[in-house]
Each structure stands twice: as structure tokens, then as C-alpha cells.
Amino acid sequence: MSTAAATLRFHRSRTRRFLSDYGQELVVLGAIVLLFIAVGAYNPRFLSNTNINSIFAGNAYIAVAAIGMSMVIISGHIDVSVGSLIGVIATIAGTLAVSGYPIWVAWLVPILVAMAINTVVGALVAYTRIPSIVVTLGMLSILKGGLISATAGAWITDLPADFMIAQVRIFGIPSPVYFMVALTVVAALFMRYTDFGRAIYAVGGNLDAARAAGLNPEQTVVGVFTLHGLFAGIAGLLFATQLQVIQSTVPPNLELTVITASVIGGVSILGGTGTVVGSTLAAILFATIGSALIFLNVSAYWLRAVLGLLILATVLADMARRRRSV
Amino acid sequence: MRADSQSASAISLSHVSKSFTGLKVLKDVDFDVRAGEVHALLGENGAGKSTLIKIMAGLYQPDEGEIAAEGRVVKFATARDAHAAGIATVHQELLLFPELTVAENIFLGQAPKMACGVLDWTAMRRQSRELLDVLDSPELDIDAKIGNLSVANRQRVEIARALSQKARVVIMDEPTAALAESDVQRLLDIVLRLKARGVGIVYVSHRLPEIFGLADRVTVLRDGVRVGTHHIREVDESSLVSMMVGRVIDRLYPGKVGASGQTVLELRDLSYRSTVRNISLDLKAREILGIAGLVGSGRTELALTLFGITPATSGKILLDGKEVRIDSPETARELGIAYIPEDRGLQGLIRSQTIAENVALPNLDRLLRGIFIDIGRVLMLARETIAKFSIRARGPNQIIRELSGGNQQKVVLGKWLSTEPRILIMDEPTRGIDVGAKAEIHQLMRKLAADGMAILMISSELPEVLGMSDRVLVMNGGRIVAGFGEGEASAEAVGAAMTRARSSMDAA
Amino acid sequence: MNATLLRHETVLALLVCLALASLAFLSERFFTPENLLNQGRLMSEVGLVALAMTFVIITGGIDLSVGSMLGLSAILLGVFWHNVGLPLPAAIVLALVCGTLAGLVNGAIITRFRVPPLIATLATLALYRGLAEGISQARSVRGYPEWFFFFGQGEMLGVPFQLWVLALATIVCAVILGLTPFGRAAYAIGANETAARFSGIRVDATKLWIYAGAGLLSAIAAVIFVSRVTTTRSDMGTGLELDVITGVVLGGTSIFGGRGTIIGTALGLILIQALKNGLALSGVKGDGTIVVIGIVLITAILVSAIIDRSRGG
Questions:
Q1: Which of A15, B153, C143, C264 keeps 20 to 30 A from A136, CA to CA?
Q2: Chains with 3 or more CB pairs closer than 8 angstroms to B?
């Protein structure tokens, strides 16, 4: 075979490999672009600054939470309590802020609390072999009840201006966008280029093989949950400072939105594969669809149904793709 | 045994004992491996081989005795310690990560790093390529996902991993059990290459021909005790078998009694997609029809089509001359067909349930009182099965997981025979079973045939095929490529048909 | 296997007695017939769905969409009666049919397309809730005739109607699960689906029945719910799946499948309801009880796991 042909073959197979490894992420990216083009053509106000702002900045916290969730799912576990956790974190942060504590305390303490709570969850999951869905189900109850107790339904208002981290703008772009992009990039690099990042994939891919390879699966699982707490904490902060008030509830089914973002983004619920870039893109896709529906004059009440159909379509396509490659 | 050379062994175990929950699994065992030698480890299931190699690999700690690596006494608290001492294992159930690439699998946990501490993927890929070249596997793509590779290739990745750990001792646990004939040859070549590099190899296998081809020394374990260690030149097959079993087995393959009966099953041009192609055969009562072939030749696929798991896409099945359509295992069972599966643990039994529950499962609709299950009859059926097949168990309520491999296979047999089938399809009936239980199962098969059963036996062990079958069919690439009547089959002819090149057949 | 199960149910039964005793001690109003019967009324909806969920989880699956199926059935009930103008009995039957169909769709996605149940029902949770929201456009339906309220608020022989329904359903489910081939098939599928298939069990058919059953019971619960609160709204049943799963898991059903009993589920639900009520009566706020339930769940599972481990399980 001539060298030219051989080189061409090599590059073509590299491209094919790239497409098959990152297929899901590319599909999601493509869908986002398609939507922007299509809806933007139909209604140019879709592409206005305010709207783009609300799409990217308003939902950045979901993407940030999805980073941690993706890591947990890749390691072979799941967390159904993250929605309530975000609510609790937001409330703690707001309460600290209005009670006169220094701003860095109001930022740092909630994140540490989130990490602490999730470390406990991770330890329970790793060392007692109780399935993570059961442990986090229990934690969901505890956090939900705790949230209602603590807030007694009241909203927190009069938040100090310098607390509002989500309102900060750099070069006209709201800070949540920077958080989302920066954290995604850092997390992606971490997952690819560090021993611990690869350990997460290993433990989720084949627990026995991980142990036989000399890894410590229990430590990895606890570590993953702690990291997840870090991202959930940051997400909680962003959520808390988006509006001028902190509500006593979080959007319903928030944890399921976060989980779905991971799954649509290419993280397999079976563990061992997927990327954080994918879940961020998927979170952006959801926000885009939500906004698109409004601009297409579709009743907002159909949004949930559309999302449900989208998830179904993605999953069915994924299953079909898996069946073909087997 | 005195060591021939003065240098210390790569690894040696002295007076090692180990117990689990009160049961002594290893008793005062000595074992050592020298650099550049292949030391075979033989023994029936339950003899203690697996425990011994796990102690060497650092997964278990011995209760008594000590381990020495190159003369120095060591303690392996974890698998990591064993790795550090140069002990690597190629497992029977390959411990790899299906979603990760070949390169990453080789270097997981020990990846080359760049100066700043991050993973150096370029170095990883380069070194993987080098290792695979040592193993003469240039066609193996280092960026491929393990999940997409064949068993043989996955095994090569595990061996490459052992090499990457600068292993001085490689433990191979039943490496050829799941390989096709051509891959077995390549593996044996690899073992010889490792040997030439000075690596000591512990070779655990049931396949005596391979052991005679590869090993320098052989150690036999029986019931946790070392029966003997010999140079391979000093022993032959029957002496090894006696050491393993403690008695002489003469009737491993009982012969046929009486003539065959009527044709009960006939297949005409049966196909399933592209894995089963135009199969035509007939099966008579009271005979054992052996189906030989390499892994991947379509034999199990044929069985699954006959049993209704993957119903035929074209062709005919005739039972007693009448055409039938088998579209589910339930239908197959009702027609009197039973399938003893290849993978006993996954397909044959529910290991977390009891003997009674397992035996009752295919018979539920016949153990009823009204619409309710009759527990009395369920237990009675289980007791009958245990008695009829001499299953060593505490009772019908014992959990399958606690039984030995041979007894578990007997439960599978008993379960299906209780459905009173007329046709029995047995897929690798004695795989992974020790010699003693093997003989029992073969006796049973003969008795069933003599009593009228028609048996279709799929086996990858040529001696078993030649020893047990009345007639032999050979499958290759989904088709039947050769058939041998009573007394016509020979090892050469059958072996040749099994390995005939694919291209010459597709032309046919 | 039987012995281990009995262990968990025994522990649970003891816990239930302990809880009932201490709550009776804490508040005089707890152990009165009227309070107990009222609690029975309140737990009927969760109870009915939990019966179906027991089967689902025993086969190794899960159904996160039950709350959405309840909401959708409720909305459809209102739509069929109010908007389409069907007579109420027909609307009720049709709503039950639709609920069953929704469950059947779940089953089809899981069996035909091999989508893992967690993801499949995650998707339908959103889809069915979305349909409920879209169809109702957030409008609620009121004005049902008097006789309709009997289901949710009436009594027979002094006992609330839905409690009779729940009791009957519990007995039927317990019999099916424990004493019939269908029940054995469910256990087998959960313990080892491949082996069950290879043993001649009709795996796909069994699963379809079970998921359809979840849909049907969710719809029945919806009818009772609507009858109790006299209105239909699209957010009904939100969060139901978590209450139900908590009750089932607390009752000893393993999330991995292959183990579990109806009795266990019943005990688990009674424990949760008793805690909720007892704590409320002694002055603890509603949210506090949710916290307690979360702690009870984790503790119960931990204890059960430890007992399992010590028996060499």
C-alpha cells in the first residue's frame, strides 16, 4: 500500500474513532446549533443578548451540578438528592449573608457543607455496599425536610450586593457562564489527565478489575462524592444569587434534570464511560429548547412533554447505536 | 525436590496453609517457580489451586507459612505489594475495562506521567505498541476499546499488562479455556517467548496435552495437599490423573450399548440470520450425536435456535416427522426439548436461590394445585432429583451457590430431566468440571441414551467428542462441513474439518 | 433465602410495634380508631402503587413514572368527563385504561427496546407529566357529582372505602406474588433474568404485565385521590415515586431484585405513615417527619445489611 493511501487510511480511521467515541456529544452540539439557526431564523429576537444571556447564564448552575453528577454516574453510582442539596446550600448561603457574616464565609461555608454531606453519603455507599440510589433516596428525604424546616416557607430577601456572585459581569458576560465553561474544562482535564480521574472510569467500568489493578475503589467512591459535593455547592451558590431573593424551594425534579443532562450528554447509566463536556452541552440544550418553545409560541405547558420525548428519542437512538456496534 | 541451580527461585511458598470459615483449603503446601521455567499446577476443582495463586498474587494472606521472592522473605498485604515484587496474573475471567482502550487497560494504575504529574498519553500509547510487538501482535489496535475485542485479543492485553509491570512471575489461570484452536497455538508461542525472557510462569490448566507441550515441572494438588512435584519427563497422563483423583479412572468415556432408535428430530436447511446457515441433520433416539467445532463456529447458536431463544429465520424443524415452529424456550420445552447451557452459572441456574426453586422453575405449570404452587410437590421433586443424581447437598433448601461445580451441573441436568424431555441438547457438558465428576456425567449420558433419549452433544474437547459420540458432525462458519458415521471419526479427520480455512467453504 | 427474609420482616414488624407503642405513648390522639382509620385513608394511594412497585423492583426494575402516571390519569379523568362530556363512570373506566396503557408503554420500551428501566421511566416521568400539564393547561376541573366522592371520602362498615380497596388489592397481590407461578417468575427474573429465560419463563410477557399493572394501580390511586380532594390538578402525584420506593425498600425488597414480599411492603408503609402521623400529632412539623423517614430508611437498610452479612449472606 502506498504511503499516501496508508496515511489517508490512518486519518480516516482516526476520524471515525473520534466520531464514534464522542458521537453523543457531537449530536447534542449539533442539535444546539440547529435550534439556534432554525428558531433564530423564525424569530430573530431569539438571538437577542437578553435571551442568550438567560439561556446560558440562567441555567449554568444546572450544568455545574451536572459535572459532579456525571462523575458520580461514571463511577457507577447515582445521586437523587442533589436537587434538595442545592436548595439547602442556597438557603445556608443566603442566611449567612443576611446575618452579617463576611462574604467569603457566606461563599465558602455552604460549599464545605455540601462536600461534607456528600462525603458521608460516599462513605456509606463505599463501605456498606448499600446501593447509592437507596442512600441518596434517604438523604433526599432528610434534606428536603431539613430545607422546609429551616426556611419555614419563607424567602430570603435583602441580600447584600457583594454576595451576589452570579450577578457579576466580566466583559459583559455574566459570571455563571465563566463558571460553567471554566469548571467544565478543568473537570474534563482532570478526568483525562489525572490518576484519580482515570480511577473513576476504572471503578465504574469494572470494580473487581480496579481492585486487582491495585486501585482502592472505596477511596475513589468517597472522593467522587466529595467532588460532586464541591460542584453541587458551587451550583447552589449560583442558584442562590441569580435572583434578588432566595426561594424556599428549588425547581421540581431538579435532580432528575441534572441526571438527564448527564445521560443525554453521553454518560452511560451503567458507568465507566462518558464525559463532563457532554453533560454541560446537554444542560445548554435543555435551556435552549425551553427558550425555543417560548419563542415559537408553543404553550410553555408543553415544555415538559417535549423534554420527555427528547430524552426518549435520545435513549432509543443510543440503544440502537449500541446494538449495531455489538 | 532439590533445586537444580543454586540461585533462589523467583517466588517460593513454604509450608503455606489457609482456611476459610473453618474449612482448611490449603495444608502445608510448598510451591516454587524459577526464572525461565513453566511450572504447571494441576488439580481438580476445589483442590486449592485458585487459593494458592491468589496467595501468590497478594489477594489472600496465608494463615501459616511464608513467601519468599528471590530468596528474601516477603509479605504481600495487598495486590499492589505482589505487583511490586514482580508477580502478575492473567485471570481466567479477564479483569479488564470494556469501555477503555487497549493502551489504557495495559497501564491503568501505573500510567507514565509527564513532568508536572499529569498522564502522558503519548508515552502510554508508544509503550503499549512496543509491548504488543513483543507479543507479536502488530494487528492489535492500541486505541480500540476492549469491549470490541475478541477473547484471545483481550487475553493478549492482559499479558501485555503483566509485561508492563516488569513481571518476573506470570500466573496464568486456565488461559486456553475460552480460546479457539488457532489462538491456543499463538498463546503457547507467547508463553515460550516469555520463558525465553526469563519470566517464570505458573500455568494452571486442565488440558493435559498443553501441559505436556509447555511445562518443565508439574505440581499436583489434591484436597489442599501437595501430592507431588515432578519434572514433566517423569510423568505421563495416567499417572497425573491418578495423582489428581487419587484413584484410577478407566471408564472416562463409556461406550455405546445397543442400536439407535427412530429419527426423532430432523432439521432441513435451518438458518438463523448469518450465524446458522442451512443446517440439515437428523437425530435418532438412543444415540449421542456429537457436534465438534471451534469457538465461534455456530454450534451454540444452532442450539439456541433449536431451543427457541433465537428462533429460526428460515428452514424447517421436524419432530417425529411433523413440522413444528419453535419460537420460545417454553415451546421447546413443551415439545420435549431440553437445553443444558454452556454457561452454567449465568444461563443454567439461579445461584442465589435454592435447589428446590431451581428445579421447579421449568416445571411450574405442572406443580400446581389449582392456580397455586404446590410446595409439597416442589420439595418432593427436589428430593427425588437430589437422590437420583447423587447430588452432594444438605437438602432441597440449600442455596446453589454453596455447591461445587460438578454438583451444580448435576442440578442443571436434574432440573431439565424432570421436564421429561425426549431430546437433550448438552452444550459443553463437562467444561470446568473435575475428572471425577466428568466420568459421572458421561456415565449418566450413556444411561439416558440407553433408556431412549436422543442427545445432541456440543463439545470443544476433541477427546470427549471422539470418546462419547456415536456419530460426529463438524461445524465451521455456521455450516456443517463434515459428517462421520459410527466408527468413522478420527482425531485427524475431525480436527482437519474444524480448522479448514473459511474461504474454501464459502465457495461451496 | 426464606430465613433471611423472615429476619428482615421480623425486624420490621418489631420496629412497627415499637413505633406504634411509643407514638401512642407520646400522644393520646394517636391510638384512637378514628385517627388510625383516617391514616389508613391517607396512605391508600401510596399503598396501592407500592403494591405494584414491589413486583417491579423484585424483577430488578424500577418505575420512576408512577407519580406522573397518577397525575396524567387524574387529568384525563377530568378531561373525559368535563371536556369530552362522557358520563362519569365511563370517564373513570377510560382513565383506568389510559393509565394501564401508559404502564404498558413503559414495559414496551423496557422489553422491546432494551432501555434500562431507570432511564426509560425517567423519560416517561417527564413525558407523562408533560402531557398532563399540556393537556390541562394548568386548569383544574371541579364540580364532580356527590356519589363520586364516596371513593375517596366514604365509608363501608365504618372503615374508609379506599382502605377496603387497599386491603383487597394487598391480599390479591400477596397471593399472586407468593403462591403462583407468576410470582415465582418475577423472583426468578430479578435474581437472574438470563437463567429465567433459559428455563422457559416468558420474561418479556411477565414484565409487560407488571409494568402495565403499575400503570393500572396508579390510575386507581388517581381516581381515589381525585375523589378525596374533589378536584383534578396536573401536579398531582409529584414525588409519589420516592414515597413509594422508600416504602418498598424499607419493607425489605432488595433494589437489585430477586427478594421482597408484599407483607414487607405493607409493614414498611405502615411504619412510614405511623411515623408521619404520630410525629405530627406530638407537635413535630411536617418537614421534620420527612427528615425522620430519611433517617429511618438508611438505618433500616443498614441494620438489615449487617444482619445479612453476619449470617454469611
A1: C264
A2: A, C
